């Protein structure tokens, strides 16, 4: 399994990544940068190569899936 992104990871800190989004309607699972793993709790993200992010997470790079 891929390593879960830590909130303390320097890039995560820079992008204010959190495992639980506090922004209504904005979650990793509906962000354009999420990759595969449909329906899974932890999924790859283009912004954090080699790690998986929480489906219910969020960061400042969030952008609506097209
Ligand atoms: Fe989540 Fe940020 Fe990756 Fe979007 S860019 S999936 S909000 S970690």
CATH topology heading: High-Potential Iron-Sulfur Protein, Chain A
Which strands sit side by side, in order, in the main sheet?
Answer: 1-3-2
Strand content: 5-15%
Q: What would CATH call the class?
A: Few Secondary Structures
Tell me which ligands are bound. iron/sulfur cluster
> What does the oligomeric state look like here?
single chain
Beta-strand segment tally: 3
First and last CA, distance: 28 Å
List the domain count as a whole number. 1
Outline the secondary-structure elements.
Layout: E1 3-4, H1 10-14, E2 42-44, E3 51-54
Parallel strand pairs: 1-3
Antiparallel strand pairs: 2-3
Please explain how this structure is put together.
It is built from one helix and three strands. The protein has one domain: High-Potential Iron-Sulfur Protein, Chain A (Irregular), CATH 4.10.490. By secondary structure, the protein is mainly beta. The longest helix is centred in the first third of the chain and has 5 residues, at 10-14. The site of iron/sulfur cluster has 13 residues, from loops.
């Amino acid at each position: 399994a891929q390593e879960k992104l830590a909130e303390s990871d320097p890039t995560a800190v820079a992008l204010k990544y959190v495992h639980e989004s506090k922004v209504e309607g904005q979650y990793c699972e509906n962000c354009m940068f999420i990759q595969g793993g449909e329906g899974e709790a932890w999924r790859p993200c283009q912004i954090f190569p080699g790690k998986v992010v929480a489906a219910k997470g969020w960061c400042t790079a969030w952008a609506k899936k097209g």
